[in-house]
Amino acid sequence: MLSGGYSSKKRVNERYKIIGFISSGTYGRVYKAQGKNGQVGEFAIKKFKPDKEGEVQYTGISQSAIREMALCTELSHPNVVHTVEIILEDKCIFIVFEYAEHDLLQIIHHHNQPQRHAIPARTIKSILYQLLQGLVYLHKNWVMHRDLKPANIMVTSAGKVKIGDLGLARLFYKPLHSLFTGDKVVVTIWYRAPELLLGSRHYTPAVDLWAVGCIFAELLSLRPIFKGEEAKMDSKKTVPFQRNQMQKIVEILGMPSKDRWPLLAAMPEFGQLGSLSAGNPRIHRPMGLDQWYHQCLKTNQYPTGPSSATPGSEGLALLSGLLEYDPQKRLTAEQALRHNYFSAHGERPSENCFEGSTIEYPYRRVSQEDNDIRTSSLPGTKRSGLPDDSLIGRPAKRLKEG
Question: What sections of the protein cross the membrane (predicted)?
Answer without folding.
Answer: none
